[in-house]
Amino acid sequence: MRIAVLAGGIGGARFLRGVRVACPDDDVTAVINTGDDVTLHGLRICPDLDSVMYTLGGVHDEKRGWGRKDETWRIKDELTAYGAEPSWFGLGDLDIATHLVRTRMLEAGYPLSDVTAALCQRWQPGVTVLPMSDDRCETHVVVELDGARRAIHFQEWWVRHHAKLRPEAFVQVGVDDAEPAPGVLEAIAGADVVLLAPSNPVVSIGTILGVPGIREALVSGPAPVVGLSPIVGGAPVRGMADACLPVIGVEVSAQGVGRHYGARSDGGLLDRWLVHDTDAAQIPGVEVLAVPLMMTDDDATAAMVRVALAIDR
Ligand code: FO1
Question: What's this model's pTM, rounded to 2 decimal places?
């Protein structure tokens, strides 16, 4: 079976580990959000691609959720000692090697999709990992800061300000001119099923869908689209979806997000929507299933993936 998965960072990576367990012999392509990408200290950092690569490569830090296990922070400490800002972003020594290789390849003219494929050669994630686009489209957050309205990079909002600054809008800078990365539209068009991972519906899944051509490929594609709710019991399992959803006028609930994605029969995306077994959702035109959605381990995640995939094609 050919499966295409749209996913973001930490939750998306964990979800993909379950997809790999549930579909060991299937052809899985992960289309990953690059809106969180940022250039700091001259290095190009792709948090969601790296979370997926490290997690599926078995070298991520499970507790932190991002970056490498057994990490050290000597370069970060040295940068701070030099007063080299930003000191609020944690760059680990092992992680910096990834950014050095990526930055050098990008500067040599390789597109991000080639760079990602090259990095994945080492980590062997077991699925094809594609950036949503080779073009830069970074998420910025419009906030009120020091008495002025300004747009700050998503990482500054999330890491430096801990998402405590009320977001007035999310802007994907450059997305209108971005194209889907090579292989993305083909993976969607050729899929037997498309899965929307339980990632942030605004700054992860929403960003991917904002790349011209991707939403259309899902809506008009032959494959059924099955989404899994990132909201359980009215709150996100992890991350800041509850800070993001009100900005786009979406209720922080499994039903709210499902209705936001919409029913394919109504011009939306979904054929099936999985909600946690304590939640309920009515979405006209969408088959809603209530199953355990806590990704407590890979087998738990694989169980929800099997339910998601058991859809008539
Ligand atoms: N998240 C943090 O909360 N603090 C950090 O210092 C931090 C550093 C960092 C470095 C590399 C990387 O790939 C991810 C990093 N993250 C950090 C996580 C990152 O902000 C998030 O994974 C995504 O951007 C949101 O999904």
Answer: 0.98
